[in-house]
What does this fold into?
Amino acid sequence: MTPPHRQVAETYRALGRAGMNTGASGNVSVRTRRGMVITPSGCSAETITDTDAVEMTLDGKPRGNVAPSSEWFMHAAIYRAYPNAAAIVHTHSDACTALACLNEKLPAFHYMITRFGGDDVRCAPYVTFGTPALADVAVAALIDRSACLLANHGMIVTGANADDALTAALTLEALARQYLLARAAGKPRLLTRAEMQAARERFKTYGPASNASAATKSKPRSRATAA
Ligand SMILES: [Zn+2]
It folds into this structure.
């Protein structure tokens, strides 16, 4: 199995290639037995090496002297709250961020929204980046979901592994782009609850997309505790 430091670096580079990050924005982590491995503070997709990621406990003790991403608290709080989350991708990708700047959720405009665990992808309210308060609002917006938008900031997704989280991030960005295109062209018809439920049932028996929503089948185990 690919070492966690390398999983983080490869996922971060893949996000860069996909145009999902600009400069040093965005971060990636995977859960480990000790806590998590997360992208270092201020890294970029062009410069990160296979060993640059920082291993740390979920209460914030890094191994070594490299500073973790400024959003480590949000990643740690999500791992603490959702035991099934094994990897996390956070980006400021264009379409998700544009929608988040409207402070709007991504509604049931397309059946693929069910991939993220519900009939919409919520938008967590704006709070300052890198704070325990941001961790709190993200954990709350992820109840029964594997993705949420972060108002005036970006998005965050969880996955069953690094590849799943990467796929989730790319899928969410594509859906946000499609929704904004539809909105620009007119008023999209939203699917009904029954139509979304039928799509969910279909996914249970159809194709690889049934791997959906690794994270959040239940209430969080505990809300971010160090707020
Ligand atoms: Zn951010």
Remarks:
- Residues 209-218, 223-227 have pLDDT under 50 and may be disordered.
- Helices lie at 4-17, 72-81, 94-101, 132-141, 162-185, 193-205.
- Residues 205 and 216 are 20 Å apart (CA to CA).
